[in-house]
């Protein structure tokens, strides 16, 4: 801890000091905003094609939406769930692994309903390296249970158990933190990824029309690192209307690339040296104060 005039700052959390640069600092990212149907084989073929389009445009990292192989609806999760532990029992998992290897790219595989041995379902994202191997698996930590009066109600916990781990993974294209949709509402998770040296946070998501308009973009813009979101397109099946607008945001909060709500592939350039530059301009790590350092923000007041 250091003292600057009458300001006490916390120095041991300097991310500027701890941010390691990967070998590749500049690359293209592709976001596949997919239309999702109730025909799983069609969704798989469609996703494969879209990933290949992104790779042909030079993307070495490709991100898919939340629930790209299954409609985002409680009517389908159980029926579409796959067990990722056995290659033969998961055509979705096998396809992602194959396409990652075939194109020598990293894939943040959106999310899919996963069935585990204990019989429980999870909303899970698989990350594959250019060798086709699974590098990480993130199960949605914050399930989307909401009742918006006069609008929508959705209860993921009727189908899914929640994940209980943050997921940060070292890849050929930097250190990536993973969150799934509603996870984006929790800045604590993003702060943890930042503190652990993430260059990029990827959020496969499927926000709805009302909270999408109000918050989707906002939640991505204040992290001082790269943030990529990828949604299904709005014409996806079911009564839940999807906001779309897959986006890449840079460390200054500027939107680098975005889309509307239609099916598309977004390609954007990422340059991690911008993170360092931004943190020198606005050195939040050096400005952090003791005021809240030891405060449990959820502590009940007597
Ligand atoms: N699929 C989701 O988690 C939706 C999250 C959402 O719309 C929100 O407002 O949060």
From TrEMBL:
GO terms for molecular function: omega-amidase activity. One of its GO terms (cellular component) is mitochondrion. The keyword Hydrolase applies. The keyword Signal does not apply. It comes from Camellia sinensis (Tea plant). This is CN hydrolase domain-containing protein. The lineage of its organism: Eukaryota, Viridiplantae, Streptophyta, Embryophyta, Tracheophyta. InterPro entries: C-N_Hydrolase, C-N_Hydrolase_sf, Nit1/2_C-N_Hydrolase. Residues 27-272 form the CN hydrolase domain. It comes from the Eukaryota. Keywords: Hydrolase. Pfam families: CN_hydrolase (PF00795).
